[in-house]
């Protein structure tokens, strides 16, 4: 079964959607680890991971007011995800700043159909939301050529480093296509490169990984 189907099945069961930018980054960290996550579930968060999540939430609250939405179906789960993207994108374009825009992959091979979204108590259906989502994607301006990445210390949020780099549209598209080939099951997941096997010291699935036999003890 393609991993994209496993992720959609998890969403239908009420789990958080895994076809997201965060999932893509996790696959870049280690595709084999992502396969384990989809098959066995996410391991419990570490203290450092919880601190990082809390920091993201703190920064988001500076510019975004979150509201609770009762979700009763897989369609509502994805609809809320798309609506968060639409609202965040509008805030970015009209106010110049937003945080935590959810970026998810839409899989056309699994159309959601004309399913009502009762949680919003409006006439809009999932198909309407998907249409607005696509329109919003097309209204986004092109990315600036120069981008900025900041690293901060968890302990006191002090700045560690700023990294400026040039946006390369072709490289980005190639990376997306490579990741999608993994998600749709057209190739096997890759293990980490030899020079990055230090990552295995932090992996909860290391004892079950086929590569462990060739890796030195951490």
UniProtKB/TrEMBL annotation:
GO terms for cellular component: nucleus. One of its GO terms (molecular function) is single-stranded DNA 5'-3' DNA exonuclease activity. It comes from the Eukaryota. InterPro entries: EXOV. GO terms for biological process: interstrand cross-link repair. Belongs to the EXO5 family. PANTHER family: EXONUCLEASE V (PTHR14464:SF4). This is Uncharacterized protein. It comes from Miscanthus lutarioriparius. The lineage of its organism: Eukaryota, Viridiplantae, Streptophyta, Embryophyta, Tracheophyta.
